[in-house]
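Q: What does the predicted 3D structure of Cytochrome b5 heme-binding domain-containing protein look like?
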Amino acid sequence: MSIATPINLILLSLFAILVYMQLRPKAPVALPQAPPPVVFRTFTPTTLLEYNGEGNKPVYLAVRGQVFDVTPGKNFYGPGGPYENFAGRDASRGLAHQSFDAEMLTKDLKGPLDDLKDLNEEQLENLQSWEERFLEKYLVVGKLVAEGDPEAPKS
């Protein structure tokens, strides 16, 4: 009885193929491209306005002085979304009133920030819950200050 039987040759061939498949050179793994880093910035209402999602720009909005990158929720906050009025703006008053209308936005972008002092307890609770939701879901990319504030970016 010889060792070179047909079954042994088939098994040896299969073994050689398996060893080759395991040891052959593999193509390098391509890692996905990381998003560009976001630097914490200081915004004024006029500098925040350009971040409304148009022209492939990110979508930012402010709540109580914190600027959030809501680009992952662009379907909601970007152009054509139900909350598009808030894109690039301070959304605090509208969120507190549970109103997404343009009337809730500050018209004078060069004036002082809305101090929200006239909000009642229920409206403040609404605003607090929205702020907590944004802190859980979105990255804080800056803070909002009024035009003329010492921290305001120089144009």
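A (community wiki): The structure tokens above were generated from the sequence. The beta strands are 41-43, 60-63, 66-69, 139-144. The longest helix spans residues 6-23.
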